[in-house]
Amino acid sequence: MIVSGTKWEEDLQRAGKSKYKALAKAIREGIVSGQMPAGHKLPPVRELAFQVGMTPGTVARAYKLLIDEGRLEAGVGRGTFVAGGQRAPQPVVPGTPVMHDPVYEMHARAHLLSPKMPEMGQAALIRDAMHAVANETDAEALLGYPSRDSDVPARLAFAKMLSPDQVGVFTLDDVVTSHGGQNGIIMILQSLLRGPNPLVAVDELSYGGFRSAALVSRAALVGIPWDDQGPRPDALAMAIKEKGIQVFCTSAEVCNPTVLSTSATRRQEIARVAERYGVHVLDDDCYRLMGTAYTGPSYRMLLPELGWYVTSPSKSITAALRIGFAIAPNGWAGALMRTATFGSFGVSRLVTDVYAHIMAQPMLDQVTGQIRARIRQDIRAAVNVLGRYRMNWSEDVPFFWLDLPGGWRAGEFCQAAEAAGVLVKSAEDFSLRDGRSVHSVRVAVNGRVPHSRFLDALQVLRDLLDNPPERLAV
């Protein structure tokens, strides 16, 4: 018990949706009455949740509320204490694990900010590739700078994965390697943008890397709203005419964060607008998992003179292998290659040859299939646990988009989830500074988090969704 000699546990059972407030009230009264003196240690979240028949998320919210009030204080590895007291060090018996309070040991529960691939054998593929490259590459190649010829094996391996039906007709010379997909986006913007005040259009809710790339390319941003088919062509046309947009950055296959795909018809409508005004379209395809089907043609296929295609193996094999690929439209490969050379002299042969070796391994299909299976397992679990709430999801996308019920704001929800040991991203992380307010969160599948912990995190999120903070009517 937190406060002995009271009936606070009975009060909690009558509290309904405000159980976390009732628990906070009971603790607060115990502190004020002196029954819980300064320095008194409270039970860990899971232990107290079991005692009182609550979820860990509810207990975590109560602790967080009292921490914000200054009545409790806590830290990683120390636990939660009544504020203001001097605490003796807690003895640790050699050879026994140190138990951390999950409210503050955030990474111990679920770090769901960014998609991370589970280890399904790709580590062994990478090690084998590194050994092979080290043993088979001559000294001159190991000591020299990369060149346009040194990454040919990587570009060949990449080209074998693509179909002209999706990305359009291209030659090997149209493909430029980059240090990951994000670097590819930056290189394209640096190759295209002109004038003292360039403008870039992005989806109204879009990958934050677009904004970062525009920033380092000295460009301002304009948001393009979506409807249920994709970016609105009328909004894009208006932005081009009124503001002078030079490039539209979008993700036709998988919009990050909303999981939505642009319909094939809408892609053609967007392409007609871009062609009419001579605006380039950068199509980022980094979130479609390797081995899954396209839902329609890329903008590079629809716009041979203006469409750019970018992808990387980060979300299919590993993010540690910093390589990406950009396919330039007709006539632009030379400009993109110059940007790559001036920026970094190109991608190291140690990286490009490792990628080429991995892509040639017979086991790769089995490994990527197991990665997809694990992601699908987590996504299906999320739908089962959170399906009563509105969410966008696909079994082949390593994150889902969750609309919050009335009473929750995105920032507050993320703070409450963090207090319960679950890290998710707010809609604010994907919107422009002057964009409309959206009360949603993106929850990523982190393959480094065991499935059982992922299930625990989903239960925490559901408890928060079921118990939004009360608000006064205005």
Write the layout of secondary structure elements.
Elements: H1 8-13, H2 19-33, E1 41-42, H3 45-52, H4 56-69, E2 72-75, E3 79-82, H5 106-109, E4 110-111, H6 122-136, H7 139-143, H8 152-159, H9 164-167, E5 175-178, H10 181-192, E6 199-203, H11 208-216, E7 220-224, E8 226-227, E9 230-231, H12 233-243, E10 247-250, H13 264-277, E11 280-284, H14 299-302, E12 307-311, E13 324-327, H15 333-344, H16 349-359, H17 364-386, E14 391-392, E15 399-403, H18 410-419, E16 422-423, E17 425-426, E18 440-444, H19 451-466
Helix pairs in contact: 2-4, 3-4, 6-16, 8-16, 10-11, 10-15, 12-13, 17-19
Report on the structure:
The protein is of the alpha/beta class and 474 residues long. It has 3 domains: 8-103, Arc Repressor Mutant, subunit A (Orthogonal Bundle), CATH 1.10.10; 122-359, Aspartate Aminotransferase, domain 2, CATH 3.40.640.10; 364-466, Aspartate Aminotransferase, domain 1 (Alpha-Beta Complex), CATH 3.90.1150.10. Helices cover 42% and strands 14% of the residues. It contains 19 helices and 18 strands. The strands form 5 sheets. A 7-stranded mixed beta sheet has the order 5-13-12-11-10-6-7, sandwiched between helices. A hairpin with a 3-residue loop joins strand 2 and strand 3 (79-82). Residues 3-7 and 86-108 have low confidence and may be disordered.
Can you describe this structure in just a few lines?
The chain has helices at 8-13, 19-33, 45-52, 56-69, 106-109, 122-136, 139-143, 152-159, 164-167, 181-192, 208-216, 233-243, 264-277, 299-302, 333-344, 349-359, 364-386, 410-419, 451-466; strands at 41-42, 72-75, 79-82, 110-111, 175-178, 199-203, 220-224, 226-227, 230-231, 247-250, 280-284, 307-311, 324-327, 391-392, 399-403, 422-423, 425-426, 440-444. With 474 residues, the chain is α/β, with parallel strands linked by helices.
